[in-house]
Automatic annotation (TrEMBL):
<dbReference type="InterPro" id="IPR023213">
    <property type="entry name" value="CAT-like_dom_sf"/>
</dbReference>
<dbReference type="Pfam" id="PF02458">
    <property type="entry name" value="Transferase"/>
</dbReference>
<keyword id="KW-0808">Transferase</keyword>
<dbReference type="GO" id="GO:0016740">
    <property type="term" value="F:transferase activity"/>
</dbReference>
<dbReference type="InterPro" id="IPR051283">
    <property type="entry name" value="Sec_Metabolite_Acyltrans"/>
</dbReference>
<protein>
    <recommendedName>
        <fullName>HXXXD-type acyl-transferase family protein</fullName>
    </recommendedName>
</protein>
Length: 446
């Protein structure tokens, strides 16, 4: 299916329940963004979607979903320019403008999404809003846009959110929303309330002033209709690899034994570290076979995003903002390919995670404040969370095109308890080469 027609049934601007109480007041809460928020200002909005079969949606209609989503709280992004014309500060203006909620329909089946070997990006990307919208455009676009698309035999819920929160916060929101929608008492959901208060190293650095030139473009006005235009993918495709619970346990044990054999050390490897090491070792080995003049000295950099809430400053898990750190593994590709197994890379990922500490996090933050750096989410980044909407487990979790580039890797829970889905964005030639590695393919579930 090369293209898909997504028809809008309705578009609703959903305001928080407290909106009526605040109509008479012109005073809104302002939340100044801190360095971890501003770091992703020039990135595109985060997109995550959930696929359900129709049986999980029996008795649910657009009106009911609208009623559930009306209990969510959202706001818009504000940008303040200073008198010198060169400096700005960015903040959340809690002005009760609300979230964008779109009810749509498409002649697409669940199998159209799941059956292809490669993720059908031309279908998936039409199921999200805010495609191509950068976080700095939060002053002219909603900070949260949700599109619920009725498929021929299922439902897809596509969530697009601004950089005002990270993956951990995003999944807290998803879990809260699912508890609200599945409860008859909207005020009795179990998730603890989010903590919005931002931290700063020095109170004098709040609000942070940025060079206007550090933000590529500031939009003039809000465009209420998202075009869902999909940027070119530059010949890259995405494939999903599924790991069952038994396969994951076997990979973890194998990685540990390989490390003991090589280093005589008993290193505790996590399941995620074992999976990522296995996948990326297979990718690099397959890529090396494609070029007769492959350069063994080529430097390889693998980056992994980590929840930083226990580091700087110590924050509650319900902190709603950005608190992440990047672990980096750097080595020569030849060094990886020549070693048997994948335990070597697993041990390096383990060391990268353990090396993240308070001092390193504080040093990075102070450096950012001094230089006002704007960054992109690194290629090869990963995040793994669990979720349950109360309508049965989603049969798949998918991502939109926003933020995708060569090597980007996304980890999501699989449809069966304990399983894991890994989506990787690479040239199709690399995937074809991986298929020729029979030993590696055994670890993947069909």
């Amino acid at each position: 299916m090369s293209s898909v027609d997504v028809r809008r049934v309705s578009t609703t601007n959903v305001r928080p329940a407290s909106y009526i109480d605040q109509q008479a007041s012109d005073t809104y809460k302002r939340i100044d963004l801190n360095p971890m928020d501003l770091l992703f200002l020039n990135d595109t909005c985060m997109q995550r979607g959930f696929l359900f079969t129709k049986q999980h949606e029996e008795g649910t209609n657009g009106e009911c979903i609208n009623d559930k989503i009306s209990h969510l709280k959202t706001s818009f992004l504000g940008i303040e320019k200073y008198e010198d014309g060169k400096m700005i500060s960015v903040y959340i203006d809690c002005n009760f403008e609300g979230a964008e909620f779109v009810h749509a329909a498409a002649d697409v089946s669940v199998e159209d999404i799941l059956s292809p070997t490669y993720v059908p990006q031309t279908i998936i990307d039409r199921l999200f809003l805010l495609t191509g919208v950068r976080n700095s455009q939060g002053q002219s676009h909603p900070l949260l846009s949700i599109q619920v698309t009725e498929l021929t035999d299922g439902v897809f819920i596509g969530c697009s959110v601004n950089c005002v929160c990270d993956g951990t916060s995003f999944w807290q929101f998803i879990n809260s929303w699912s508890q609200i929608t599945s409860s008859s008492n909207y005020h009795a959901y179990l998730c603890p309330p989010p903590v919005f208060e931002r931290w700063s190293i020095n109170k004098t650095d709040c609000p942070l002033r940025l060079q206007l030139s550090s933000v590529d473009k500031l939009p003039a006005k809000r465009n209420p209709i998202s075009t869902n235009e999909v940027p070119p993918l530059d010949g890259l495709v995405e494939r999903c690899f599924r790991f069952t619970k038994p396969n994951i346990a076997a990979l973890k044990e194998r990685a540990s034994l390989e490390i003991i054999s090589e280093t005589k050390q008993n290193m505790v490897i996590s399941s995620l570290q074992a999976i990522l090491a296995f996948v990326w070792t297979a990718v690099i080995r397959s890529r090396s076979c494609l070029n007769d003049n492959w350069d063994k000295s080529l430097e390889l950099s693998i980056k992994i995003l980590m929840n930083n809430r226990t580091k700087i400053p110590p924050s509650p898990e319900t902190y709603f903002g950005n608190s992440i750190a990047t672990g980096i593994v750097t080595l020569k590709e030849g060094e990886l390919v020549k070693r048997p197994g994948f335990g070597f890379l697993a041990s390096m990922l383990n060391e990268a995670v353990k090396s993240n500490n308070y001092e390193k996090s504080r040093s990075f933050t102070e450096s950012w404040i001094e230089k006002h750096l704007m960054s992109r989410v690194p290629s090869g980044s990963t995040c793994m969370y669990g979720n349950n909407f109360g309508w049965g487990r989603p049969i798949a979790v998918k991502t939109g095109v926003n933020g995708k580039s060569y090597g980007i890797t996304t980890v999501n829970p699989g449809p069966v308890e304990g399983s894991v889905d890994i989506e990787i964005f690479l040239p199709i030639e690399v995937f074809k080469a991986m298929e020729n590695d029979a030993e590696s393919m055994k670890a993947f579930s069909s």
